[in-house]
Design goal:
InterPro entries: TAT_signal, TAT_signal_bac_arc. With 184 residues, the chain is mainly α. Helices cover 58% and strands 0% of the residues. Helix 3 crosses helix 4 and helix 4 crosses helix 8. It is extended.
Length: 184
């Protein structure tokens, strides 16, 4: 039996490539820790209602209509009109701020954290079930249906191609493209 000595041969090019990638990774991690988390950055756009209310509404919107593969920015597009509307309508501003305060109070009592900081979706859903019949929850849920699902930028993420009438209709454009049913 012949014994062969195993040696890992690393070329200078491979070493430089690997060390360069490692340096870039360390730099990216360092720079990333200096930036705000995405939810905080998006919620900072709420100038009238405030960033805390914006963050709570964003998390609430994701919990009511959960789509893990869809970015927070699409949810933000659906809830950001509340800030401008609340600036003009004191009753709406009160409804939202009181609703968020109630939700945060429930979260503090049950999980010792504000609603947006409650760690799991299941725990947050228990809080939403508590307030689901109230005016605040119904307002957010009702507006989210149209604000989120009527956004044409979201449609391709769900596989929806959009309107077809201006292109001649669906007969020649995917009417029978069903590939998930077995062929007869």
């Amino acid at each position: 039996m012949r014994v062969v000595e195993k040696r890992v041969a690393v070329s200078r090019r491979a070493f430089l490539k690997g060390s360069g990638l490692a340096a870039a990774g360390v730099t990216a991690l360092s720079a990333g820790s200096l930036m705000l988390p995405a939810r905080d950055a998006l919620a900072a756009e709420f100038t009238h209602l405030g960033a805390d209310i914006g963050k709570t509404l964003l998390v609430m919107a994701r919990d009511i209509f959960p789509h893990d593969k869809i970015s927070d920015r699409f949810y933000m597009l659906a809830i950001e009109p509340y800030d401008a509307a609340a600036a003009k309508d004191p009753a709406l501003a009160k409804l939202i701020s009181d609703g968020v305060a109630q939700l945060n109070a429930l979260a503090q009592a049950n999980f010792m954290a504000p609603y947006a900081e409650v760690p799991t979706e299941t725990e947050r859903l228990t809080l939403l079930y508590t307030i689901e019949h109230g005016a605040f929850f119904q307002k957010i849920k009702g507006d989210m249906v149209t604000g989120f699902y009527n956004n044409k930028a979201v449609w391709p993420l769900f596989g929806e191609e959009g309107s077809s009438w201006e292109k001649g209709g669906y007969i020649a454009r995917g009417f029978d493209d069903i590939d998930w049913l077995p062929k007869a």
